[in-house]
Amino acid sequence: MRTLDDLLAEGVSGRRVFLRADLNVPLDKSTRAITDDGRIRASLPTLQALRDAGARVVVAAHLGRPKGAPDPQYSLAPVAARLGELLGADVPLAADVAGEDARTRAGALGDGDVLLLENVRFEAAETSKDDAERGELADRFAALADVFVDDAFGAVHRKHASVYDVALRLPHVAGRLVATELGVLTRLTRDPERPYVVVLGGSKVSDKLAVIEALLPKVDRLLVGGGMCFTFLAAQGHGVGKSLLEADQVETCRRLLAEAGERIVLPLDVVCAPEFSAEVETTTVPVDQIPDDQMGLDVGPRTVEAFGRELGGARTVFWNGPMGVFELSTFQAGTRGVAEAVGAVDGLSVVGGGDSAAAVRQLGLDEAAYGHISTGGGASLEYLEGRQLPGLAVLAD
Q1: Alpha-carbon span 268 to 288, nearest angstrom
Q2: Looking only at Cα atoms, what is the longest distance across the chain?
Q3: 64 assigned to a ligand binding site
Q4: Distance in angstroms (rounded) separating the CA atoms of residues 146 and 218
Q5: Scanning 7, 23, 154, 251, which has the fewest C-beta atoms within 10 Å of its C-beta?
Q6: Catalytic: which of 169, 194, 204, 302?
Q7: Is 183 annotated as a binding residue?
Q8: Which of 382, 395, 361 is nearest to 42 (CA)?
């Protein structure tokens, strides 16, 4: 796979570069202010390197899930403004994705200039299952530039026009973020330094089942928290009250527990409440004493201590998914405690993107404490499952 450094060695001054970035940041629903600019900041090393080399950069990205047509609430206008602030340069936003305004603005770029296209998902063809439809849009993307750089790791598991099809039409390389992500995930899958501990949270077992099946033969310990732990606890015969439960996955969890033995570590206690609310009164109980009329919304202090012991001796850690409903301060302690233990690991610690990365930032934890914070939760998990990611496969051609 060719990388950005290969492209820079060839020289890009005066050349137009189509850069697919992952700028899919969360916005406040009422003000449309960016609440976490981590993905924008992660795109800067590649973008600045291209600017410094004199490239004329056309940036493509998506935001949210618009329904294949322009929608003001998903406009990249706030992203263009923040990107300009971080770069210390004007970043105009094209009025369309790959139409007349995009063509005019791209053609007028000077060396080191940056143009951001409007949300690529405003075009239905971007996510189409039809190769010809995606190909027509990719043709328009390719007409805007001379070379393609993919730095959107969070989208490489998608066979989309701006990720996959444009790479079939232009010389292509992996950006620095994609190369870094790939290097870290390769270390996790090929020859991780041991003990190797994986921490999985989040709401549903079904969302993580494939990665659990793939990782179990490779890990020394798999620590399970979040809403998904209750299906495992039910598989052990415990009542889980009103907690999140996937009844159709109980037998699968029972099989996994039997196969894994002591390698799967479950919570010892949970923080319960009768309802999901910031003001509600909570109780912390052992996992075999969850009241019938309550739901578990975080792991308890004994669990944090036990998980911390497992993490304390680890040399490689991958963490994906919060331990509880960390968005509410009442249920943050479990995620905070485990996140701090992951950050203290003497070895490689990887935060697997998505809600885990959001938790690190929302809880005000030191990002520098972690070996790597991924920008792509779904892409990271699919890579660890051993699946072929279209955006990476096409770069390797």
Answers
A1: 9
A2: 67
A3: yes
A4: 42
A5: 251
A6: 204
A7: no
A8: 361
Rounded to an integer, what distance in angstroms lies between the CA atom of residue 137 and that of residue 337? 46
For the stretch 210-241, pLDDT in tens is: 999 999 999 999 999 999 999 999 999 999 99
Q: Among the options 154, 354, 376, 377, which is catalytic?
A: 354
Nearest Cα neighbor of 66 from 27, 21, 116, 110 is: 27
Mean pLDDT of the 81-99 span: 98
DSSP 8-state code for residue 109: P
Q: Scanning the structure block, which residue is given the tokens 């993919």? A: 150
Predicted TM-score (pTM) of this structure: 0.91
* Digit-coded pLDDT (tens) for 174-212: 999 999 999 999 999 998 999 999 999 988 899 899 999
Architecture of domain 192-385: 3-Layer(aba) Sandwich (3.40)
CA-CA-CA-CA dihedral for 163, 166, 167, 172, to nearest 10: -100
Q: Is 378 a catalytic residue?
A: yes
User: What's the pLDDT band for 355 if we cut at 50, 70, 90?
Assistant: confident
Alpha-carbon distance 322 to 100, whole Å? 44
The CATH 3.40.50.1260 portion of the chain extends over 4-176, 192-385
Examine the residue annotation and report whether 204 is marked as an active-site residue of this protein. yes
Residue among 39, 56, 82, 134 flagged as catalytic? 39
Q: Is 221 annotated as a binding residue?
A: no
Instruction: Show the tokens assigned to 332.
Output: 């943050």
Query: What is the per-residue pLDDT for 377?
Result: 83
Q: Which of 328, 319, 332, 325 is nearest to 372 (CA)?
A: 319
Query: What type of residue is 180?
Result: T
- Residue 220 annotated as lining a ligand binding site: no
Amino acid present at 54: G
Give the residue among 11, 13, 20, 5 at the shortest CA–CA distance from 113: 13
296 is in an annotated binding site: yes
Identity of residue 10: E
